[in-house]
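Recall that a protein's primary structure is simply its ordered list of amino acids. Everything else, from secondary elements to tertiary packing, is in principle encoded there. The following example makes that idea concrete.
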Amino acid sequence: MANRGFTRSFLTALITALVSFFILYFFVPTLSGHFLGVSFSERGKQTVSTQVDNAVQTAVDTVTSSPEFTKQSIDKLQDLLKSEEIQSKLKDAAKQGETALKDAVKTVTDSVK
């Protein structure tokens, strides 16, 4: 029997993984999106959760730099934005559009003041 070295086995596994990734990425985008979290058909599109995360991060950054919010109110806002109820409301707003999402985040931010 041929004695295979570690390097050859590693390269074979690496090439197999890369070929499998590209086959899933380009030719089976639904499975790729599900298992890998990325697919060719979804590139350039923002998912609802990405939109919500970006809006929440922007709101937290704005509030953090604002002098009218105290450390306690910033902590309260972060806890509120992490809650399941608010997250589901923000996701529903994101499905309606960017303006609705910004309004929902502003409403939550204003409730903490």
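The chain has a mean pLDDT of 83. Residues 68-112 form one domain.
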